[in-house]
Write a structure and sequence with these properties.
With about 850 residues, the protein is mainly α. Helices cover about 60% and strands about 5% of the residues. It has a six-stranded mixed beta sheet with strand order 1-5-4-3-2-6, sandwiched between helices. Strand 2 (about 780-785) and strand 3 (about 790-800) form a beta hairpin. Helix 27 runs antiparallel to helix 28. The longest helix is centred in the first third of the chain and has 32 residues, at about 170-205. The chain is flat.
Length: about 850
Amino acid sequence: MQPKELLTRTRSEFFTTFQNAIQHIVAPAIETMFAKANSCNSPSEQTEIFRARAALQEHREMLVQQLSLNLDQLLDRSLETTYQNFRPSSSALSLSLDNIGLLDSSTFESSLRFNNITQLFRDAAGQELVDLNIRLAVLFGQDDICERENPFRPYLIARCISLSVEALKLPPEQTAILITQIGETLSSNVLEMYQRANANLAEQGISAQLVLKINKTPESLPSRSNVSSVFADTQQHHLGVGRPVQKEFSAPAPFRAAAQDEFPELMTKPAINIEQLFLAVRGRAGFSKAPQDQIVLSEHESHSLGWLEGGAGLGDMLRIAFGAEEDLSWESKSRTRPPIQTSSLRGSSGSQNLSVVRQLVHQLQVAHEATISAGSGAAAVTKFSFAGLDFPAIVGQMHKLLTPPIAKMLNEHGEVRNLIHEQREVLFQLARTTVEQMSIDVVAMVFESILFDSVLPINLRVQIGRLQFLLLQLALSDQEFLSGKQHPARMLLNRIATVALGVQYVESSAEQFEQEFGRIFKTLGKHDCEIPGLFERILNRFDTFVMRELRIQDKVIRRTVKSIEEAQIRYSQFEQTSRTLKAALAVMNLPPQFLAFLENEWVRAINLADRREPELAQRFRKFVPEVIWSIRPKRSNEERQQFSVLLQPMLESLRFGMDMLGWGQFKQNALLNWLNDAHGRALKPGDEAVSDLSLEKMYAIFDEFVNQPPVVISEIATEDKSPEMQKYLLNILEELGLTVTMLDADRAGLRDSNDGMIRLSKPVRAVDTQELRSRLISGVPIEMNLDGIFYRGCVHWVSPGTNSMVLSFKSHEAPAVISIDGFCQHLTHGTARMVESASLFDRAIASVLKSADALDR
């Protein structure tokens, strides 16, 4: 049998196994992408993963069809060229090596990603791939084993995935995410594909053993241009270029000279410069609208980071600045603490470029004069001087005088300007120590990440961008700003960013919040950090505004909040009344049915009366000791006379209470008849001994119940009582006619469903409940799965000391109520998520550290 015929059978087995595998890869890929998005620190990356996940759900059938079709075609083409001298060019646009220039970043990343997926498949196949390469060499009578001649090589599977995902016509970011994820998911099935192929060839007598032959060593090695590259397939795939066979490789002159005499010197890793750092941060924080070749930085920015000395990595130095020393790499922990240079810079660079300092003085003088003239109209103004100002104070003046207006905060590409980055040269001239130089670059990097944070709306990024000099001044004068998560300035900006995202889905309050944001940024724009407690006062006032506005602005939300509070009051009243009554009844020997009536039904009647008329509730409370005394035997005429006086008002209170409870006539008559019989037995003379309990003593036993102290809600309506309080809430909502969605944890969204929607019944991630509770406050944006679709919403109110939240969702008129525990369960099962993966500053710092680590590697 010819080799081609044998390969056809193996091809059929390999292709069938692949088709079976791709039928089951979409669902696990979707779940894995959801977990990746939730654990992602970068908001832009998280957004793209969620978009790619949604695209995969939408195009799942088309993707499976494309995978099958593309591998079928690739296998046909590969079988034609197995161990053949002629190979058709992979592209009509193939170029010669002379035409290849430097790769742009997107092509390089695509090539790297493709190589990684191919290697992933090689690793998964392991020895099975080696055996298959040997069997094919034996089948074609070849001495050399070459994976490139294998018609089932891992490259074809990676190429198939790439072509199939690209056929979906998705944005480049989503395409890259899906190619990687499909490759990772399919890798678990690769081993079986190569096992089946080997088994098929083995059945046809093709062994995985080669005959050993000894070849003489050639007198000279072949030229490098004739050596096949393991990346040949990959280069053809990404560049449309085949490696020229006849072209001699020509090295640059310096390397040719070195090659003739000795090995060239080892290339050391170049020092990290500010240009690399900012481009890395920008790429991780978001997507720049400017092409890479248009992102031009000033000449001084190509210099290395002067403050990065002492052998420490950039990531470790930044972790020290951010107060995250526990996350240092093991190399740094094994050394001493990475040094931060604190030497003075006055003698070294103070006279290098005084022109930039003079230019800054001139700019400040012009702005100072314009401010004075606009404020008072005075013709003569004092000359601006640096005299008496230290470096932080100068930066404070730059904040007040040189911050551009909103209209000039965008560059020609529509991106928010990094003012610190623009003024880096003059700021470095004014810096007194390397620590201050480091602070300049660190604050600039943090702002670079914030200004490209795609989660934030552009208008908010502009407003925050106008605070760059203010926060630089703060970082220079207060080390806790960069290292302390609870610093008031960081908390204020984190809170503003969070609320700005949340109120996007609250149309009724949009205008009020825009005005409040404007007032805050206007206040911060007029002052510098020398004002004590500036950020604390603004933060406290803003928190009060947010809680009040989100609670009262919308009528339905306001009534819902009041309903929850009323439910807490009613529950607390019932519990306290029931508790004190049971304590007093414990010493009484009453019939079980009558005891149950007093402990349950009559307690409800008291609470109902308490809401209508406190005097009526007091009458109902006194009814209990009176009715119990009334059914006890009367031993004296005085007691019988007291009974006669007490009977009529006691029965009136009983009838009034039964009416309030809504009892029917039959039920009322049953209780009255029983009570009448009990009174007859009590008035009947007898010889049995009866304890001496007068009416006065009965009142004394029930004194705490009758004269109950005011209810302390916080001591009774605790978080563990939420299920009981919810019953009261449902009754109140029904009384008021309010439509509210109750999002309990046992909703159908947490259970399996056969309606075609993907719902996770098993936990998909762990949730730090304590950390989550600290984030769930008024104004926080959230997402929840409502009827199979994720909707974004806002937390309006969180009950203090209890477990309830009031939410609203865009496109949903009715507000929603859920317990914090219930929301945590939704997060755990993947049916809810936080819009912000972390706070604004935490996201920015994580992005900076990730970029620094990438440059260190």
